[in-house]
Amino acid sequence: MGALDDVDDLRGWLALAEKLGEVRSIHGAHWDKEIGAASEANYKSAAPPALVFDDIVGYPPGMRVLTASMSNARRLGMTLRLGTDLDDRALIEALRSKPGEWGANASRYTVNEVETGPVKEHVIGPENADLLAFPVPQWHEADGGRYIGTGCAVFTTDPETGVLNAGAYRMQVQNGGRAASVNIEAGKHGAAHVREWFAREGRAPVTASFGHDPLLLVVAGTEVPAGVSELEYAGAVRGRPVDVIRGEVTGLPLPATAEIAVEGWLYPERREQEGPFGEWTGYYSGGTEPVLTMDIERIYHRNDPVQLGAPPGKPPHDYSYMRSVMKSAMIQDALIQSGLPGVEGVWAHEAGGGRQLLAVAVQQRYAGHARQVGYLAAQMPAAAYMNKFVVVVDADVNPRSLNDVVWAMCTRTDPAEDIETMRQTWGSRVDPLREQGVPPFNTRAVIDACRPWTRLEAFPRVAEASEELLDRVTRRWPDVLGGMR
Ligand SMILES: Cc1cc2nc3c(=O)[nH]c(=O)nc-3n(C[C@H](O)[C@H](O)[C@H](O)COP(=O)(O)O)c2cc1C
Q1: What number is the average pLDDT over the span 101-107?
Q2: Cα–Cα distance between 107 and 161 in angstroms, integer?
Q3: ∠ CA(280), CA(316), CA(423), 5° rounding?
Q4: What is the DSSP annotation of 138-156?
Q5: Distance in Å, CA 117 to ligand 1 centroid
Q6: Does position 2 have pLDDT exceeding 70, yes or no?
Q7: Strand 253-255, strand 243-246: pairing
């Protein structure tokens, strides 16, 4: 893979992406809403490049912010070390069965502890800690503050086993830059670690990185199975362990090549008002609540650091493509590994933020098979958080095509018979439907959009020309029809 093997940090990643023509620069944008809005305009375009913001108003040149890092197949494929010229189809093909392999191999890639690294070019103690010394964006117009942690990796450990977890949990700058809140939703691995530390020691050590090889964002921001360390998982993806240094205060690891990193402790009572924030659901739906906040004990950073931004919002947003691709691959892998036969394809649609709308294509083998696929898909650990709809379609329907999935629903689902609902399932604080003060349950539906098992043979034939006939006519009139298939 050559050039891909050399990528070790965000700078290496950027250099390769630039060489591939995948990066554009914007100079002179303001951290206050302009970086966010320019990024949003980019996500909505047909082929969003990665954007590097430099010469940010009020900050020295060189202090950069990167967005849209993985908003297309080429850059996501590159980040996952699968190739530098993949399109959507090739990426999905290349990813097949990979998440399971990476998880299985992770323990062979124990992190490599090093004495020091570029992240220690500058080390700042609590007395001088100021996160606003960096051009931290106010991403959306109605956000409650500036968020340094969007594409971040927050590290915690299990106090009993020492297993390290990395989660992308958003971090808002607090207390004029001397503190940052860490917004971990209940049920996430980091939340369990913090709870256990509180019970044992009364405080929880935390480190966080705000600029790194985007691969670390993929693993931190995706539901890697519990007990598998995300850094080892990243090592398995790269085929090489990740170098870490130990934080001077907490002893927790940090990527040695991080651009900016912090450490500190969370205490049960130390909270600050957090939010609102434009969420991945497409709303400012989380409101403002007191959230665990850490006073910054150390800031480490490189010269001219690059923040890895990944602001959500109404999809498509910064990481909705990455999430759709990763979720789809992980859920498909998990369903197949569960022993379920006939699963031909899974797609977690961007319109549902990669979580709320799953389409699963199945080759029906027995009565009840389609519903079994639907129920299981809705509750697999990789899918359960905030799923709302699972649409099960026959194998002749492309689960990635929203048009074809909706067509199957309209023609193969009898609403009174074929929609099953589940209650008190794993929802989220950021669900716009949740009422204040109510625990974050949701409900969800399995929509069976397969031909009824009892009429499989007798169901009307699809009114669509056969592949053979289509091939014949496109070959006959290539000037007119050649580019259409
Ligand atoms: C850019 C980005 C931001 C995210 N922000 C949050 C957040 O603020 N809180 C949260 O609980 N999950 C957030 N997530 C989702 C978690 O990172 C994801 O569920 C991940 O699997 C959590 O790690 P864990 O499974 O080890 O707990 C975010 C994901 C991404 C990609």
Answers
A1: 95
A2: 14
A3: 45
A4: B-STT-SS-EEESS-EEEE
A5: 27
A6: no
A7: antiparallel
**266 phi and psi angles, rounded to 5 deg:** -100, 140
Residue 437 pLDDT? 87
Average pLDDT of span 150-169: 95
Out of 170, 181, 210, 323, mutate this one to test ligand 1's pocket (max ligand atoms within 8 Å of CB): namely: 170
Instruction: Give residue 1's pLDDT.
Output: 54
Which residue's CA is the closest to the ligand 1 atom numbered 5?
A: 169
Q: How confident is the model at residue 3 (pLDDT cuts 50, 70, 90)?
A: confident
Helices and strands of the chain, counted as H and E runs: 15, 23
Residues with CB under 6 A from ligand 1: 150-151, 165, 167-170, 183-185, 188-190, 220-223, 310, 319
Q: What is the CATH number of domain 83-308?
A: 2.30.110.10
Give the class (CATH, top level) of 320-455: alpha beta
**In the chain, domain spans:** 83-308, 320-455
Residue 315, CA distances (Å) to 44, 181, 321, 372, 374 in order: 8, 25, 9, 30, 24
Is the pLDDT score of 485 beyond 80?
A: no
Residue 298: predicted pLDDT: 98
What atom of ligand 1 comes closest to residue 170's alpha carbon? Answer: 8
- Can you tell me the mean pLDDT for 406-425? 98
